[in-house]
């Protein structure tokens, strides 16, 4: 289904949650796309929409030209067919399975054709050898987060989505994991969506930074262009009164400024 | 019933039959209703569908109806002349009426609301976010249910099973109405106890069998608590 | 329980347990044939026979239910006999010194005291209660105690209320009353005050068991007679 | 039972009494057993103490014992002559025997294992880390239970209540054995239904009352589901 | 009970959890004490012990001279009598209560004598005005963390213990909260135990840094002294085989090198 020439990632979303109103569209090419923005700006919501955990009120999600979500066409590929490795902000390890089984969980369900990621190097990278036999209960915050990273990596995803994966790790550990992600990006060519509050991480990894604020995109460009701007370091003001803008005759394709191939218009 | 003379505690062969039969009936009532119990609990906990209230009501029916009525309904439906009973007998050669299998059916039906509710409560307590996580790792709906939800629900399943088993050990009204009280074939412990209470001098016999019944149920309860504690420790919210 | 171990299945009113168990044991001793007896309430048994229960012989505590089956063509009318007779009695706790003669218009309400209740079996549904009520109506005292009657599911429960001293008076079968040491018979109800208390027996239409017919005949032999009389029943004549 | 003639559905005044009484009894059985149910569920879920297995066994006992036996035990304990009954009557003037309050007690006891299990399952699902958090904010053990645990357990409490209520609507064996069947005072719907099932041709009456009973239970069930959904939505693991 | 001259915080703990062996003792004065160390080094375990959520196998916890835990003397003041405001690493908001009620929770149970912290300024500081009526469900990761901080601050604690409180917040928000914590330290003189992986936060706030590694203290001093050292930026190696050292005739007092006042020896 891969359409050459199509951007790796095309996203257009409109979704309302209570007073929060997400309305954005962006496309980006292979490599690491960073979602950057203050707390509550909608990063996790975008992540959930990419993974198919949220059905956006209107929107489009395409990876490598394959349509995963298209509310207009009524397409919503279920999460387990998306092969997106997601590192959740809140780890979400399976409490009844050992760390080892947690790590290998994705492998059970991966299609045969999927590349197999070896367990040992990932475990060594994350420094969790001594935890393999334990259950998630009793793991420290950082240990959980590392297992969650490993679980996503080992599921051999075609897109890796990481929601603040290194937030509770020490600098030294971060310095070990970041080069691995760089190799993943450069050698294995796995595209990555990376959510982080850390300027240094974003600067180091990302090719494209999408700057969010209150559910809108307020900047998009290279880390150098975006991180320098003042907006990247302002907190969101208290949310203004409910916006009157309605979900209407708004077309995701239009919002993206991409034309959908005729074959998909059906 | 002398102090020293414990002879009254000895069971007659017919009473041993009743003990065996009660164990058999309770075991199968519990085991056989488990898959349906889990399925219905899951439906009620996680799916909205038209007629859900009706299904929920039907599940609770055996709790609401006097057991005699439930037994009579079973007799009408599953008896040899009943629509389902006749169908089963003709098509599969399965006869429930006046067999221990019918007693198991009656006990399964009577324990069903208890089993479903326990499992349902446990399913409702499972964090859907974990199921979502399994989804992103490639597990489909059924796989997720089997590999994530079900193990997390284990304590609830054990609770449901022990409730169903205990109920089956005590169920009497529906059973005797549906399959009668034929020694060696459909006479379970509670039926035998009932019979004793209906004649002069039956108290010792009733007490004797009641003690047996209570002992078995206590044993099952202890085992279930042990298993549940293990399952709980394993699952234990971290 | 695989193959049937018995030669005939008897459905009998639960109150007959002691009597029929003894008779069946003797029958087996004499003939080597086994009789399995399913004891339950007559209504349940009659309904089961309606639904094709594998019963060969039905011994009912109520004429009505036997008539009901007869009208439905489910018993062999030619085999039907009135097997046993019984009496009802006014009883009091053994410790009670109440003395009262059962006669037209007797002061039953007075004997109950200001807040005492009269224990009876269900007066519209259970035979012992129906007979008792008929007797009280015949004697013209029903109205005076109608709202003082504690109706039980069966005679045994009514007897227990008297035996425990929960009520000052009750009406039960003499077969139950004489067997309970904690209960004293205050007076028998004259037989003409109520319909005859009769336990009819009949072979079922579908029965193919010779043993059942033989057992029924055996119950009428002088050999079986004392076993039945020992439990307080009157064995009715040929 | 004509198609057009729905007259058979009309309830007699005495049947209306039974409906009212059943509602009263079920309501109070549920409400009155709730505090103890919560306390016992909490004990079993969260505290280890010597004799815990025994308490657990006792709680399940009414499930295991044939209802008639439970009723008889209640009579022995809470009857006027029973140790607890006599004590209550002398000390507080509370009489349970032959009163609707006794019926409520019987129903409460019969529903207790179901209520406790539902609440216990819910308590076991509460994350102790939340309770720990309440502790660091100054809430003592009891305050934490009231302000954190209890609200989180609400869906389980509602489930326990509806189970207890439904059971009370259908409970018959223990009730009639303990408090008899006194129209207008202790005759609940199941007792009335039972009466109908005991006479030939009583099916229409039994069906009529069964429909009423089922309708009430369905109504209660719907309300409980609504409340539970609300509680669930509120609590909903984020 | 406050003993003048006694250090604000005295801690000696020995606690074994599976293969993890915590064995440490330190004392520190008013101000901010930072617990610093790689993931899994035992920071959260120390925090739990201070709050009384963990009963150490052997140990002593004293605040301002008041003994809260003393296993030798059999003292274990329950958490709700300690008046320690704890910001959990995992937020732990009460899901059935509104954000507002979550925030005010501690106030319901605070003794009358406790100072009352006003709601509005804290809410404004944390930028959570628009969340007050919501329930925790649906809050973003950073929003949760902010509510958790507010909840601890508003409980008017005599010791504030914060376990990676700013980990999931953006820089801008951090820059607003840090000065508040400084004011708390300097003006309200609330002692703070601060767990963080962020060098800059620790350097800015802490008077004392306690550097942990595998359950042991490997450094203690001012931020300048500790953060510069190599140890602060090494990851813990795979845990060495179970140590044979046993819990024995080890005395917390001894380990602290402080003498307990005679009045408490009882
Ligand atoms: N059910 C809901 N009702 C109302 N608001 C909601 C709901 N779910 C999410 N929100 C709001 O949507 C906004 C975006 O949330 P999201 O989790 O995407 O933020 P985020 O950018 O990931 O923030 P963080 O960096 O703190 O994790 C938040 O303000 C959140 O409160
Ligand atoms: N029940 C247990 N069994 C075995 N090990 C345990 C148990 N509980 C905690 N541990 C271990 O104790 C160690 C210390 O945990 P702690 O949560 O204190 O670490 P931490 O310093 O807070 O780490 P982080 O920065 O990742 O939050 C961890 O390695 C953890 O796995
Ligand atoms: Mg987020
Ligand atoms: Mg930690």
Describe the structure.
The complex is a heteropentamer, with 2 copies of chain A (266 residues), 2 copies of chain B (238 residues) and 1 copy of chain C (238 residues). Chain A has 266 residues and is α/β, with parallel strands linked by helices. Chain A has a domain at 1-83 and 160-165 and 191-266: Rossmann fold (3-Layer(aba) Sandwich). Chain A contains 9 helices and 11 strands. In chain A, strand 10 and strand 11 form a beta hairpin. The two termini of chain A are 15 Å apart. Chain B has 238 residues and is mostly helical. Chain B has one domain: MetI-like fold. Chain B contains 10 helices and no strands. In chain B, helix 5 packs antiparallel against helix 8, helix 7 (141-170) packs antiparallel against helix 10 and helix 9 (189-197) packs antiparallel against helix 10 (203-235). The longest helix of chain B has 34 residues, at 13-46. Chain C has 238 residues and is α/β, with parallel strands linked by helices. The mean pLDDT of chain C is 91. Chains in contact: A-B, A-E, B-C, B-D, C-D, D-E. Chains B and D meet through helix 2, helix 3, helix 5, helix 7 and helix 9 of B and helix 2, helix 3, helix 5, helix 7 and helix 9 of D. The structure holds adenosine-5'-triphosphate (ATP) (2 copies) and magnesium ion (2 copies). One adenosine-5'-triphosphate (ATP) sits between chains A (17-18, 20, 39-45, 89) and E (138-143, 168). One adenosine-5'-triphosphate sits between chains E (17-18, 20, 39-45, 89) and A (138-143, 168).
SSE topology:
The complex is a heteropentamer, with two copies of chain A (266 residues), two copies of chain B (238 residues) and one copy of chain C (238 residues).
Chain A: E1 9-17, E2 20-28, E3 32-36, H1 43-51, E4 58-63, E5 66-70, E6 75-76, E7 84-87, H2 99-109, H3 119-126, H4 141-154, E8 159-163, H5 171-186, E9 192-195, H6 199-205, E10 208-213, E11 216-221, H7 223-228, H8 252-256, H9 262-265
Parallel strand pairs in A: 3-9, 3-10, 7-8, 8-9
Antiparallel strand pairs in A: 1-2, 1-4, 4-5, 5-6, 10-11
Helix pairs in contact in A: 2-4, 3-4
Chain B: H1 13-46, H2 52-64, H3 67-78, H4 83-92, H5 100-124, H6 128-136, H7 141-170, H8 173-179, H9 189-197, H10 203-235
Chain C: E1 8-13, H1 17-31, E2 35-40, H2 42-50, E3 57-59, H3 63-71, E4 81-85, E5 88-93, H4 108-112, E6 118-121, H5 127-138, H6 142-145, E7 149-152, H7 155-163, E8 169-173, H8 174-179, E9 183-188, E10 198-203, H9 210-219, H10 225-230, E11 234-235
Parallel strand pairs in C: 1-2, 1-3, 6-7, 6-8
Antiparallel strand pairs in C: 3-10, 4-10, 4-11, 5-8, 5-9
């Amino acid at each position: 289904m891969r359409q050459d020439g199509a951007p790796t990632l095309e996203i257009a979303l409109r979704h309302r949650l209570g007073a929060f109103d997400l309305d954005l569209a962006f496309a980006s090419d292979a490599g690491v796309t960073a979602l950057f923005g203050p707390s509550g700006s909608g990063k996790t919501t975008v992540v959930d929409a990419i993974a198919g955990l949220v059905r956006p009120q209107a929107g489009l999600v395409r990876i490598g030209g394959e349509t995963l979500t298209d509310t207009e066409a009524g397409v919503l590929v279920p999460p387990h067919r998306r092969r997106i490795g997601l590192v959740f902000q809140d780890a979400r390890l399976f409490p009844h399975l050992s760390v080892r089984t947690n790590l290998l969980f994705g492998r059970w369900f991966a299609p045969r054709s999927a590349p197999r990621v070896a367990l040992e190097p990932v475990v060594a990278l994350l420094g969790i050898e001594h935890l393999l036999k334990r259950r998630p209960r009793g793991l420290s915050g950082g240990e959980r987060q590392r297992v969650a990273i490993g679980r996503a990596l080992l599921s051999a995803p075609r897109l890796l989505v990481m929601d603040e994966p290194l937030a509770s790790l020490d600098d030294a550990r971060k310095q070990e994991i970041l080069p691995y992600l760089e190799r993943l990006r450069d050698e294995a060519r796995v595209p990555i969506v990376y959510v982080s509050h850390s300027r240094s991480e974003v600067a180091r990894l990302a090719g494209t930074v999408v700057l969010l604020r209150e559910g809108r995109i307020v900047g998009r460009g290279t880390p150098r262009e975006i991180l320098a701007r003042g907006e990247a370091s302002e907190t969101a003001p208290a949310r203004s009164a409910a916006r009157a803008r309605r979900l209407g005759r708004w077309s995701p394709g239009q919002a993206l400024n991409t034309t959908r191939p005729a074959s998909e218009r059906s | 019933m002398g102090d020293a003379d414990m002879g009254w505690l000895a069971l007659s062969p017919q009473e041993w039959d009743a003990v065996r039969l009660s164990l058999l009936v309770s075991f199968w009532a519990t085991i056989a209703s488990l898959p349906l119990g889990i399925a219905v609990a899951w439906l009620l906990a996680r799916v909205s569908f038209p007629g859900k209230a009706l299904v929920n009501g039907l599940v609770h029916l055996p709790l609401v109806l006097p057991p005699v009525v439930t037994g009579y309904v079973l007799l009408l439906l599953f008896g040899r002349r009943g629509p389902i009973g006749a169908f089963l007998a003709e098509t599969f050669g399965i006869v429930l009426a006046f067999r221990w299998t019918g007693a198991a059916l009656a006990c399964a039906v009577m324990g069903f609301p208890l089993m479903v509710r326990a499992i349902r409560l446990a399913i409702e307590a499972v964090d859907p976010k974990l199921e979502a996580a399994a989804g992103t790792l490639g597990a489909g709906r059924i796989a997720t249910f089997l590999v994530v939800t079900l193990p997390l629900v284990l304590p609830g399943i054990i609770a449901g099973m022990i409730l169903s088993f205990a109920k089956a050990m005590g169920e009497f009204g529906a059973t005797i109405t549906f399959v009668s009280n034929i020694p060696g074939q459909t006479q379970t412990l509670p039926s035998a106890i009932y019979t004793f209470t209906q004649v002069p001098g039956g108290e010792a016999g009733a007490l004797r069998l009641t003690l047996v019944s209570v002992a078995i149920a206590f044993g099952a309860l202890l085992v279930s608590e042990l298993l549940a504690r293990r399952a709980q420790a394993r699952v234990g919210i971290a | 329980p695989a193959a049937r171990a018995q030669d005939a299945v008897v459905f009998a009113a639960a109150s007959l347990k002691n009597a029929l168990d003894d008779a069946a044991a003797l029958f087996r001793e004499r003939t080597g044939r086994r009789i399995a007896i399913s004891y339950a309430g007559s209504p349940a048994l009659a309904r089961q026979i309606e639904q094709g229960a594998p019963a060969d012989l039905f011994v009912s505590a109520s004429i009505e239910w036997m008539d009901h089956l007869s009208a439905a063509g489910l018993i062999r009318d030619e085999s039907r006999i009135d097997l046993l007779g019984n009496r009802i009695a006014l009883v009091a706790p053994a410790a009670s010194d109440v003395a009262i003669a059962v006669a037209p218009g007797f002061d039953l309400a007075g004997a109950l005291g200001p807040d005492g209740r009269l224990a009876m079996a269900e007066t519209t549904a259970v035979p012992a209660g129906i007979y008792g009520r008929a007797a009280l109506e015949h004697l013209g005292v029903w109205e005076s105690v109608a709202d003082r009657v504690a109706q039980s599911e069966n005679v045994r429960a009514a007897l227990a209320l008297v035996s425990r001293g929960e009520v000052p008076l009750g009406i039960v079968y003499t077969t139950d009353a004489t067997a309970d040491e904690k209960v004293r018979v205050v007076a028998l109800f004259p037989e003409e005050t109520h319909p005859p208390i009769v336990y009819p027996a009949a072979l079922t239409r579908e029965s193919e068991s010779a043993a059942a017919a033989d057992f029924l005949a055996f119950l009428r032999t002088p050999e079986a007679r004392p076993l039945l009389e020992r439990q307080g029943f009157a064995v009715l004549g040929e």
